Structure to design on (918 residues):
C-alpha cells in the first residue's frame, strides 16, 4: 500500500484524550454492550419456582428444537415473513421504478406520497387495518360484494390477517432501498445500450434489473427483519391461532414468566436476523457495497 | 550569522517502517524568506507540519528563540499557517475569518474590526470584509488566508504550497505579491513548493529536500551556479554535466581531464578530491561560448543547431567520446560565426562559471 | 429513452394499487372519526365531531401525549450529543476501536426493536433499576443513537480537517475550535438528525412497551386502548397523529432529502 507520508497524519486528535474516550464509549458500552451481554447470559439459565437461576444449561435451546410446538412456530414465522418480503419487494419494485423515471415535480410528489406512511404511527396502521379486516369490516364486505363470500372469514384474526397487515405496512419500506439503487445507475449506461440497439425491454432485463439487485436485496432483508421482529401485529390481528415467534417470545416475558426460555428464543430470532443480513451482504457484489 | 529564529536539529520522522525525514538540520533566520523545495513525497510538507505542531518528530529537537518546542501544542506556537486549501471558515465572513486569531485571544471586538481592516488592506482586499469565502475567487481566498495569518503578528508564517491551485499568470502575480509583503511586514516566511521556478524567484534562501534529506541550502544564485551535488545540479533548468577525471589537485584549483580536453576549474573548499577521482563539471548552457576550433583548449564537433526563437540550442559532441554531448545556449541574433553541422569548434567559458562536483 | 405509454400505464396502475393498499385503511379510519360509528360500521349520514370533543376531556391521552413529547425531546437531544461525540471520535483517528464503536452503535438499530427492548428489560432487572420514564428514555436513546450518529458522521467527514487545524493554528483551544468552527458547520446535520430522531421517537412502540413503568407514552397508550376494541376517541386521535406525522414528514423530506431529489430521471435525456 502506497502511503503518502506527507498526508498521513493530517488528522488532529480532538480534545484531551482519556476523558473524551470515556465519554465516547460510556453510552455504547453501558447501554448497548452490557444489556446484550446479560441477555445472552440469561438464556443459559432456567426458572426454578418464581426465581431465575443461572445454571448454565442448554435446556432452553434443546427445548426449542425438540418441542414440535416451538419448532413449528419458528418455521411458520420464517415462511410468513419470507412471504411478506417477497410480496412487498415485488410490489415495491414497480413503484420505485416509477419514481425513478419520473421528473422533478412528479417525482417529488411521489416521494412525498409514499414516504409519509413511513413516519406514521405504527400502531395506528395496524389499527386501521384491523378496522378493515374485522368480520363486519370493509374487506369482508368487499369480498361479499364481488361474490366470494365463501372466503369471508379468510382474513379474520388469523395468520393470514397478520400476513396482510404486515405486507401493507411494510410496502413503503421496500420502495426506497430499491429506488436508491435505481438512482445510482448512471444514465450513460442506458444511453450506451440504446446506442448499441437494445430495446427497452432488453435494457431493463439485462442492465437495470441486475444493477438494481443490491437495492432489492436490501429491501428484501429490511422488510424481513422488520416483519420477523414484530409482536404487536400478531397480537392485535392474529387472534387465537396467529402466533409468530415474536408473539411467543413476548408472552415468555409476560404471563408465562420464563425469561431464560424467552431469551433463548430471542437468540434464535437474532440468529435468523444476522443470517439474513449476512446473506444479503454476501449476495451483493463487492462493487455495489 | 545572525541568531536563528527557528532551529531544527537532527529531526527524524518515521511512520511505521517508512522513514519520511532522516536527520534534518535547518535554520530559519529573522526576516527571511526561506523556500523548501522538493518533489512530492520528499518530506517537505512534513517539515512544515512539524514546525507548526501538527505532527511530532520521532526524534530530534525543534527550537524557537532558544526554547525547545517539543511537546508544545499547535495553539501555543507563535507561528501561523497558510494551508494549501486555504481552510477558510465557510460560515464566517471574510472579516470574521481574518479576526479569528484575535477573537480566540479575547481581544475587544472594536479592536478586532480595526486590525482586520488593516490586514485586509495589506493584502489589497479592502472592502471585502462582509463577503463570504464562497463568493471569492481562488486568488482572493488566498489573500484572505494570508491576512488571517498575518494579523496575529507571528514571528514566522508557514505557507504550504499556497499557489498550487492558481493558474499560471495569477501565480506569477502572487509570487511578486508575497515577496513584497514579506519585505513589508518583516516576518519570516517558510514557503513549501515543488516548483523550482517559484523557488528561484522568491527565495532569500532555498532548501532542497529529497527523500527525507536536505540536499543543499543556499541562495538561489548559489544553488543555480554552484550546486553541491548532482541532484541539485539537475533540479533547476538545463545544466551540462561533463564527466571527467581529476588530473591535478591543489588547494584552489583542480585540473580535470574531460572528453572535450583538459581544463582547470576552481575548487570550492568543500570539494575533497584526489588524483584519479571521477569528477563532474557543471556548466550552464548559457555560460558556454563557442569559438574558433583552435582558439580554446577544449574542442568538440557540432552535432545540431536548433532555433527556438530568441535562443538557439547547439549540441556539441566530443571528438573522443561521441556519447559526451554539451548543450550550448546563445542568443540567436548573436552568433559570431557560421556553424556548420559536423564542423569543429572550440569551447570556452569564464573560469568562475564552471563548478566541479562528485558524480 | 423515454418509457412507452404502456409502461406508464402499467406502472401507474400498480402505483394506484399500492396507494390504495397503503392509504386505504387510513382513509377508512379517518372517516370513522368524522362520522358516527356503530361497532365498526360507519354511518355516512351522520357527520360529527363529537369524538374530538371527547378527546379533549380524556386526560390519559393528553397526559400520554405530553409524556411522549418530553421523551422525544430528551431522547433526541441525548442521542445527538452521544452521536456527536462518537462521530468526533470516528473522524479524528485511525484506531481499531472506531470499528468496534460503530458496530456497537448500529447493533440496536439493526436488531428487531423487540430484542433491544428485551435486552434492556433483563439488564434493568439485573442491575436493579425499576422501569420508569427514565428507562423509556434510555431505550429510545439507544435506538436513536445509530440514526443520529450516521447523519452527523457523514457531514462531519465532509468538513475538511484543515478547518480544525487552521483554528488551532490561530490559537484556539480544542473546545473553541469545536464551538466556533466545527459546530456551526454541523448545523444542518444536527437539525436533520433531530427531526429524524424526533419522528422515530414519537412513533417508537415496541421497545417502549417492554421497558415502560407506570407512565405510558402516546403510542403505548394507543395500543392499550386499541386492544379493547374500537372507540371514537381512538379514531380522533388517529386523525390528529396523522396530521402531525404528515407535517413532520414534509419537514423531514425538505431538510433531509432536500436537493437530492431533483436529479436526472432514470434513462432520461442528458
Amino acid at each position: 500500500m502506497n502511503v503518502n507520508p506527507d498526508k498521513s497524519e493530517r488528522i488532529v486528535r480532538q480534545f484531551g484524550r482519556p476523558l473524551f474516550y470515556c465519554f465516547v464509549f460510556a453510552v455504547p458500552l453501558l447501554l448497548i454492550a452490557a444489556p446484550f451481554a446479560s441477555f445472552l447470559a440469561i438464556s443459559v439459565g432456567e426458572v426454578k419456582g418464581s426465581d431465575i437461576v443461572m445454571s448454565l444449561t442448554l435446556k432452553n435451546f434443546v427445548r426449542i428444537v425438540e418441542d414440535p410446538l416451538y419448532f413449528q412456530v419458528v418455521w411458520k414465522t420464517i415462511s410468513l415473513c419470507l412471504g411478506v418480503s417477497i410480496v412487498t419487494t415485488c410490489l415495491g419494485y414497480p413503484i420505485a421504478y416509477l419514481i425513478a423515471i419520473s421528473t422533478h415535480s412528479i417525482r417529488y410528489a411521489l416521494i412525498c406520497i409514499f414516504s409519509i406512511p413511513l413516519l406514521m404511527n405504527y400502531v395506528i396502521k395496524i389499527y386501521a387495518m384491523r378496522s378493515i379486516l374485522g368480520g363486519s369490516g370493509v374487506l369482508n364486505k368487499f369480498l361479499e360484494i364481488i361474490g366470494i363470500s365463501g372466503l369471508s372469514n379468510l382474513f379474520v384474526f388469523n395468520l393470514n390477517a397478520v400476513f396482510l397487515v404486515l405486507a401493507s405496512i411494510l410496502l413503503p419500506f421496500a420502495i426506497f432501498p430499491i429506488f436508491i439503487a435505481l438512482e445510482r445507475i448512471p444514465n450513460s449506461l442506458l444511453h450506451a445500450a440504446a446506442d448499441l440497439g437494445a430495446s427497452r425491454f432488453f435494457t431493463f432485463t439485462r442492465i437495470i434489473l441486475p444493477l438494481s439487485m443490491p437495492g432489492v436485496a436490501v429491501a428484501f432483508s429490511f422488510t424481513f427483519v422488520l416483519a420477523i421482529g414484530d409482536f404487536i401485529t400478531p397480537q392485535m390481528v392474529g387472534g387465537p391461532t396467529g402466533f409468530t415467534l415474536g408473539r411467543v417470545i413476548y408472552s415468555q416475558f409476560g404471563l408465562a414468566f420464563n425469561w431464560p426460555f424467552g431469551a433463548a428464543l430471542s437468540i434464535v430470532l437474532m440468529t435468523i436476523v444476522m443470517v439474513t443480513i449476512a446473506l444479503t451482504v454476501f449476495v451483493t457484489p463487492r462493487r455495489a457495497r | 550569522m545572525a541568531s536563528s529564529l527557528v532551529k531544527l536539529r537532527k529531526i527524524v520522522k518515521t511512520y511505521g517502517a517508512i522513514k519520511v525525514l532522516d536527520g534534518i538540520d535547518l535554520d530559519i533566520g529573522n526576516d527571511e524568506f526561506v523556500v523548501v523545495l522538493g518533489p512530492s513525497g520528499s518530506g517537505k510538507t512534513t517539515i512544515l507540519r512539524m514546525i507548526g505542531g501538527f505532527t511530532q518528530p520521532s526524534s530530534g529537537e525543534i527550537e524557537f528563540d532558544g526554547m525547545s518546542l517539543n511537546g508544545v501544542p499547535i495553539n501555543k506556537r507563535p507561528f501561523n499557517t497558510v494551508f494549501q486549501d486555504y481552510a477558510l471558515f465557510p460560515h464566517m465572513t471574510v472579516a470574521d475569518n481574518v479576526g479569528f486569531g484575535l477573537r480566540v485571544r479575547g481581544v475587544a471586538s472594536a479592536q478586532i474590526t480595526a486590525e482586520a481592516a488593516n490586514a485586509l488592506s495589506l493584502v489589497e482586499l479592502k472592502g471585502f470584509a462582509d463577503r463570504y469565502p464562497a463568493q471569492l475567487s481562488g486568488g482572493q481566498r488566498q489573500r484572505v488566508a494570508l491576512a488571517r495569518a498575518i494579523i496575529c503578528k507571528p514571528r514566522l508564517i508557514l505557507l504550504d504550497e499556497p499557489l498550487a491551485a492558481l493558474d499560471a499568470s495569477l501565480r506569477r502575480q502572487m509570487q511578486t505579491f508575497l515577496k513584497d509583503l514579506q519585505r513589508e511586514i518583516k516576518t519570516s516566511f517558510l514557503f513549501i513548493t515543488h516548483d523550482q521556478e517559484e523557488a528561484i524567484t522568491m527565495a532569500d534562501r532555498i532548501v532542497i529536500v529529497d527523500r527525507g534529506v536536505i540536499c543543499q541550502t543556499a541562495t538561489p544564485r548559489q544553488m543555480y551556479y554552484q550546486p553541491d551535488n548532482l541532484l541539485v545540479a539537475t533540479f533547476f533548468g538545463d545544466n551540462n554535466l561533463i564527466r571527467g577525471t581529476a588530473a591535478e589537485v591543489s588547494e584552489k584549483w583542480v585540473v580535470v581531464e574531460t572528453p572535450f580536453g583538459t581544463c582547470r576549474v576552481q575548487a570550492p573548499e568543500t570539494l575533497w578530491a584526489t588524483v584519479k577521482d571521477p569528477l563532474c563539471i557543471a556548466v550552464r548552457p548559457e555560460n558556454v561560448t563557442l569559438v574558433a576550433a583552435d582558439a580554446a583548449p577544449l574542442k568538440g564537433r557540432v552535432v545540431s543547431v536548433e532555433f527556438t526563437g530568441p535562443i538557439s540550442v547547439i549540441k556539441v559532441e566530443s571528438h573522443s567520446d561521441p556519447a559526451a554531448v554539451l548543450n550550448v545556449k546563445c542568443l540567436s541574433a548573436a552568433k559570431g560565426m557560421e556553424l556548420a553541422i559536423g564542423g569543429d569548434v572550440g569551447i570556452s567559458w569564464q573560469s568562475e562559471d564552471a563548478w566541479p562536483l562528485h558524480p | 429513452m423515454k418509457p412507452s405509454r404502456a409502461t406508464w400505464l402499467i406502472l401507474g396502475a400498480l402505483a394506484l394499487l399500492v396507494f390504495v393498499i397503503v392509504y386505504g385503511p387510513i382513509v377508512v379510519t379517518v372517516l370513522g372519526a368524522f362520522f358516527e360509528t356503530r361497532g365498526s360500521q360507519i354511518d355516512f349520514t351522520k357527520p360529527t365531531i363529537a369524538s374530538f370533543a371527547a378527546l379533549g376531556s380524556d386526560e390519559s391521552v393528553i397526559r400520554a401525549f405530553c409524556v411522549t413529547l418530553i421523551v422525544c425531546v430528551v431522547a433526541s437531544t441525548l442521542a445527538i450529543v452521544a452521536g456527536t461525540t462518537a462521530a468526533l471520535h470516528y473522524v479524528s483517528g485511525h484506531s481499531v476501536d472506531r470499528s468496534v464503536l460503530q458496530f456497537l452503535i448500529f447493533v440496536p438499530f439493526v436488531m428487531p426493536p423487540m430484542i433491544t427492548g428485551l435486552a434492556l428489560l433483563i439488564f434493568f432487572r439485573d442491575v436493579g433499576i425499576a422501569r420508569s420514564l427514565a428507562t423509556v428514555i434510555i431505550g429510545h436513546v439507544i435506538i436513536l443513537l445509530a440514526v443520529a450518529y450516521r447523519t452527523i458522521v457523514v457531514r462531519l467527514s465532509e468538513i475538511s480537517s484543515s478547518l480544525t487545524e487552521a483554528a488551532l493554528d490561530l490559537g484556539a483551544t480544542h473546545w473553541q475550535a469545536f464551538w466556533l468552527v466545527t459546530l456551526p458547520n454541523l448545523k444542518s446535520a444536527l437539525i436533520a438528525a433531530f427531526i429524524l430522531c424526533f419522528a422515530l421517537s414519537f412513533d417508537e412502540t415496541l421497545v417502549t412497551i417492554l421497558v415502560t413503568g407506570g407512565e405510558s407514552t402516546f403510542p403505548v397508550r394507543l395500543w392499550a386502548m386499541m386492544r379493547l376494541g374500537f372507540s371514537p376517541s381512538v379514531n380522533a386521535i388517529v386523525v390528529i397523529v396523522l396530521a402531525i406525522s404528515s407535517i413532520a414528514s414534509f419537514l423531514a423530506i425538505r431538510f433531509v432529502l432536500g436537493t437530492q431529489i431533483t436529479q436526472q430521471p432514470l434513462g432520461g435525456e442528458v
Residues 59-91 of chain C form the longest helix (33 residues). The radius of gyration of chain C is 23 Å.
